[in-house]
Amino acid sequence: MRIDLHTHSTASDGTDTPAELVANAAAAGLDVVALTDHDTVGGHAEAAAALPEGLTLVTGAELSCRVDGIGLHMLAYLFDPSEPELARERELVRDDRVPRAQAMVRKLQELDVPITWEQVARIAGNGSVGRPHVATALVELGVVDSVSDAFTPAWLGNGGRAYADKHELDPLDAIRLVKDAGGVTVFAHPLAVKRGAVVSESVIARLAAAGLDGIEVDHMDHDEPTRARLRGLASELGLLPTGSSDYHGSRKTVRLGECTTDPEIYGEITRRATGAFPVPGAGGPVPA
């Protein structure tokens, strides 16, 4: 089985619609794909309705968190989307995305970048606006060569010149909320240093003690020594090591299935979840 547990659609900051995403996942030879848009479950229904034969959908979201002044992302899988407290927190984060993006536009304008809010809003479309939409505008303007190049301290990286804060969860609260909603939590790209400051291993240990289920090890922003370090940490802390593409469609160069999760790890994630269950396409594999 080929399993990719971290992808994005136009419901947040990807360029594939949810229906296109699952079609492209099947074409890429995946057996399982997780749709984990930022702080929203808005793409799940469309993805499930369009699910092709042989592909299983894992519903999820990537939650925006902050601890000790450092931003981090928490992947939440197979939670009950109607659980009120978690739904309320996701709504608070989404509501803060527009003023946050507008603040980044103003900071870029102060840096003499000819960006406009209208340009960013056009790029975001109906999706939950975020930094990748602002980064795409910088690519359009020729300020940077790629979206990834915008995620540096010079521009939109954590603490960067044009960075702006938004409402974010404490990761300990995120773990509790997802658990209460029957879901499973995995710390996304925990050592992606090129994006900005990352948390210490002692923080990851605190999260593990609070019930964190896993850490994303195999990711495009982790080099091989970093992946080896994270595998050792996962073993030491009893965390599930996952692998994912963090696919955003044409917004980034990464391909679906570029990094994958071991089937046994996927099986453990599904066994721990009680809030929702994987959705098999017609004739698709039976969830573990």
Describe this structure as you would to a colleague.
Helix 4 (117-124) crosses helix 5. Strands 1, 2, 3, 4, 5, 6, 7 and 8 form an 8-stranded mixed beta sheet that branches. It contains 10 helices and 8 strands. It has helices at 18-27, 44-49, 84-110, 117-124, 131-140, 147-150, 171-180, 201-209, 224-237, 263-272, and strands at 3-7, 32-35, 56-67, 70-77, 184-187, 214-218, 240-243, 279-280. It is α/β, with parallel strands linked by helices. Helix content is 38%, strand content 15%. Strand 2, helix 2 (44-49) and strand 3 form a beta-alpha-beta unit. Residues 283-288 have low confidence and may be disordered. The chain is globular and about 50 Å long.
Relevant terms:
globular, disordered C terminus, alpha/beta, eight-stranded mixed β-sheet, 288 residues
DSSP strand content:
15-25%
For the sheet with most strands, the description reads: 8 strands, mixed
Average pLDDT confidence is 94
Helix content: 25-40%
H-E order: EHEHEEHHHHHEHEHEHE
What is the structural class?
alpha/beta
Outline type: globular
Rg result: 18 Å
Number of helices: 10
Low-confidence stretches: 283-288
According to DSSP, the number of beta strands is 8
Distance from first to last alpha carbon = 11 Å
Q: What is the fold's blueprint, element by element?
A:
Layout: E1 3-7, H1 18-27, E2 32-35, H2 44-49, E3 56-67, E4 70-77, H3 84-110, H4 117-124, H5 131-140, H6 147-150, H7 171-180, E5 184-187, H8 201-209, E6 214-218, H9 224-237, E7 240-243, H10 263-272, E8 279-280
Parallel strand pairs: 1-2, 2-3, 5-6, 6-7
Antiparallel strand pairs: 3-4, 3-8, 4-5
Helix pairs in contact: 4-5
